Amino acid sequence: MAKIILVTGGARSGKSTFAEKLALKIGNGKATYIATAQIFDSEMAERVKLHQSRRTDAWTNFEAPFDADKIIAEIDAEVILFDCVTIYLSNWLCAKNLEDKNLAADFENFIERLIKAAEKSCATIIFVSNEVGAGIVPENKLARVFRDFAGLANQRIAAAADKVFLAVAGFAVDIKSFAERI
Amino acid sequence: MAKIILVTGGARSGKSTFAEKLALKIGNGKATYIATAQIFDSEMAERVKLHQSRRTDAWTNFEAPFDADKIIAEIDAEVILFDCVTIYLSNWLCAKNLEDKNLAADFENFIERLIKAAEKSCATIIFVSNEVGAGIVPENKLARVFRDFAGLANQRIAAAADKVFLAVAGFAVDIKSFAERI
Amino acid sequence: MAKIILVTGGARSGKSTFAEKLALKIGNGKATYIATAQIFDSEMAERVKLHQSRRTDAWTNFEAPFDADKIIAEIDAEVILFDCVTIYLSNWLCAKNLEDKNLAADFENFIERLIKAAEKSCATIIFVSNEVGAGIVPENKLARVFRDFAGLANQRIAAAADKVFLAVAGFAVDIKSFAERI
């Protein structure tokens, strides 16, 4: 059974940097990277370039904006860094109809496929995700649905994870160890 | 004196689920629920239905979109779950004039009445609340006033509480135990 | 070498109140305050007045919406409270062109000057900052750039700090002590 780790946090909280260091530490200087971003505009291109510039040839790179479960199943690696769950969710959600009555069930299916693939893998898998639910309720329905699913995705992955970190100002706090168990 | 517990967290951080389990544990499988939502639209109706579907006949249910202090005073129960402070605050704020010079004082009064009622009750009272202040400053004045009052409400209740939990990705971290005392 | 402390948190999480108490405790009842706000409107004036009303003559007050590094260098004090990093950043960013290719490098320079000034000071310096990155991605580009820089500013200061606190509902959790070190 794979070891699963979740690193979540707000924007620019240091979660990717922490997850990259952790991946290379576990993999003794080598790790596999699964990128999820689709590049639509120059701002996203800049952000991807910044992430890539931090990753040297210590990394084997894959891209999985969709169907990451299939890609995880095919990768033979000691450690996989999946960055990030919220972009991957966003890719999925943008192809959906928000009024579809099966949307919630489809989401559960979608996130379960990802978690099952991670559990079946021999690799340690580090999921990077975002905290998006600690602001004011968004006026836009897509944003509200997205933040609900993002929160649920974090809950589902965290429940399957051995370790859950919350990044704050560059520091990663081990949430699961300090959490109340009831 | 009642035992007061605050469970706060972002949207879909698992705070209601945690608070419900905690209430049933404290009440040995029985608890009283105070709902605060007014149902205006189908989206809110869906959300309320989801919350209700999790609550079996282990629960005695009350509704208190307004004047919850009076309802708390009348309830004879071992454990009360109040879900949630931010909706209750929002019901109150929407009936107010944002330009009223007494608004801040009125708010302190409003939140004090709720806390005093909780303190006088014989029940253990679990307040569920939301973290709404960790995003960008909202452009809308109502949203700014709301997030200020929501943060203050959480501070006031936390100060009166025996335990304060922050829910992150389904895990509830005991904030008060780990906080610096000065 | 100065002792540096970062207190971050969402709006109305109690970070300023905590930081003020901490400053007065370290300074045995006396401390120096560096305010960063420029007052443009009545809402900001109200907020500043509220902050000032909490500060008695135990405080020596300075204003530094810009070039705080020079002001820090000139202050001879045991303890300085800098409130807050995000307003100071906002003052700086509003005078910039978002399309400037040197913006990221300029930012690093700007924040490094502040940290170097703090390190050179003989005072213990407490920086108050805001968590602004845990909501939905803002639609407005200025807001996106601001929240990225605010997150990075917190990371840079936290890396230089001896203590990092996250304020939640009036309680300040010592993040650095509980963080994973890799």
Structural summary, described in words:
Three copies of one chain form a homotrimer. Chain A is an alpha/beta fold. Helices cover 46% and strands 20% of the residues of chain A. Chain A is built from seven helices and seven strands, in the order E-H-E-H-E-H-E-H-H-E-H-E-E-H. A seven-stranded mixed β-sheet of chain A has the order 3-2-4-5-1-6-7, with helices on both faces. In chain A, helix 5 (103-120) runs parallel beside helix 6 (141-160). The first copy, chain A, is globular and about 45 Å long. The mean pLDDT of chain A is 94. The A-B interface holds A 6, 8, 10, 129, 131-137, 141, 144, 147-152, 154-155, 157-159, 164, 166, 175-176, 178-180, 182 and B 9-14, 18, 21-22, 25, 43, 131-136, 138, 143, 146-147, 165, 168-174, 178.
Name the assembly state: homotrimer
The class by helix and strand makeup of chain A works out as: alpha/beta
Mean pLDDT of chain A: 94
Query: How many helix segments of chain A?
Result: 7
Distance between the termini of chain A: 25 Å
Portion in beta strands of chain A: 15-25%
Major β-sheet annotation of chain A: 7 strands, mixed
Tertiary shape of chain A = globular
What is the helix/strand order of chain A? EHEHEHEHHEHEEH
The residue fraction in helices of chain A comes out at: 40-55%
Strand neighbour order, sheet with most strands of chain A:
3-2-4-5-1-6-7
Count of DSSP E strands of chain A?
7
Estimated radius of gyration of chain A: 16 Å
**Largest interface: chains, residues each:** A-B, 32 and 30 residues
Low-confidence stretches of chain A: none
